[in-house]
Amino acid sequence: MLVSVLKVIQTQITSELTGFGQFEYNLDASKPEGENQEKTRLTFAGLKYNELGSFDYGRNYGVAYDAAAYTDMLVEWGGDSWASADNFMNGRTNGVATYRNSDFFGLVDGLDFAIQYQGKNSNRSTKKQNGDGYALSVDYNINGFGIVGAYSKSDRTNDQVADGNGSNAELWSLVSAKYDANNVYAAVMYGETRNMTPGSIDTGVADQEGNTIMRDQLINETQNFEAVVQYQFDFGLRPSLGYVYSKGKDIKGVPGHRYVDADRVNYIEVGTWYYFNKNMNVYTAYKFNMLDKDDAAITGAAADDQFAVGIVYQF
């Protein structure tokens, strides 16, 4: 059982200036005593000054995730074509200074933008490292329709540059759009990454037990697409249909190939929630994995279907 603890603090400093902070962590209650399974998800603090916007610093969502958030709405899976935690500014991450502005200084309703800077993090595994970088996002919402674009660019660390793919990591989210009205939620997202998305590559070498040895790397290029549609019935049922796809291009290090293209993620999720009230719901989902076994062997991704069921109580 996974327990999430969320604490949001807000204090009015003056009539125009507000201080805020957020702390969130997960605890795996299925583990025995003595096995520390706590995980800090978010911890940041900042200030907001009316129409001038807000500034915060800490462990927070990367601004690039603004584009992924539209489609990261599936019941159990989803949002994993390119977004992930501790991967540059593509998800929850450390050491980010974030400026956000809503309604463009109070002049344009629904037009929001964000600017973010991330400092270097190199004292971790290579695929979770990052150099100095920045990210931008622009989001416009009107009458239930929304569209967002995001871009990020970061230096890569010395360990990452050793793969020969260059000194920079970049992301473009070219299209991310949604419709959220009349009990309907529908969204699509397309984005590309360069030297950024983590993956595991088949080395063609086996260990003493005959298991294939996989090598971590940041994939040279990925092309990613996600889509989701949901409907909220008045009696509490919310069915969901989602699709997630990611293709890795010019992957290095595969035996017998200089470069190779391979699908990384390719699945359909069918699922539903049932809300008893605002505090409690149950959910179930099935993942139809359409990943080719040859591609799965190259990238080390799972190719099996999966099933999930759960219950959520929000205090």
From TrEMBL:
Topology in membrane: Multi-pass membrane protein
Location of the protein in the cell: Cell outer membrane
GO BP term, pick one: monoatomic ion transmembrane transport
Record carries keyword Membrane: yes
Membrane-spanning residues: none
Swiss-Prot/TrEMBL keywords: Membrane, Signal
Principal location: membrane
GO CC, one annotated term: cell outer membrane
Any Pfam family: Porin_1
Gene3D superfamilies for this protein: Porin
GO MF term set: porin activity
Protein family per UniProt: Belongs to the Gram-negative porin family.
Name the record gives this protein: Outer membrane protein F
Provenance organism: Escherichia coli
